[in-house]
Input
Amino acid sequence: MPMPWDERFLGSTRGQLIALLRRDTQTVEDLATALQLTDNAVRAHLATLERDGLVRQYGVRRSGGSGKPAYTYELTPEAERLFPRRYADVLDEVLDELQERLAPTLVEALLRASGSHLASHYPASDGPFATRLETAVAALNQLGGLAAVEQRDDQFVIQGYSCPLAALVPKHPEICRLAETFASDVAGLPLRESCERGPTPRCRFIPVAHE
Output
């Protein structure tokens, strides 16, 4: 079965560049360092992506020295459409119906059960602590998110940069319980969600035993 075009693209150099910009705004130098390319090569890729409406200049980053200010780049909303957003509309309707018919505690129980059932399709980790977190990150990314294990204040957390359920969070913040249970079950560790629910929702899962 041929690989879908968007998967082929996301595996290319330009796709890797887009994945880096999906985390945060970046300068040409940032991208060149991360991808081990020359600045000119990155500029050529950025020019193509700008032409295609996937990347745009965001602002200027000024260093503390007397060097030239560097332009920063970000993704456009069109670029986010390259990444899967599966079943969001259908799930939104289902959650509306559940909230009308069931008590909040039952809705949460169903979401947690769904998270556990979804996790059962992924290999659970029984390795060292860091390996367990990486396994959960890999599973979250397979669902269409972008997450990484990071150290924050002397503890490791799973930090999300793009949530596959982001479209649902403003209206249904309880959906984060599904993601919390999913990540916990795959990691084989109790995790507590501490998600950002602003205009751009971002997941964060903190190991309970390491709080």
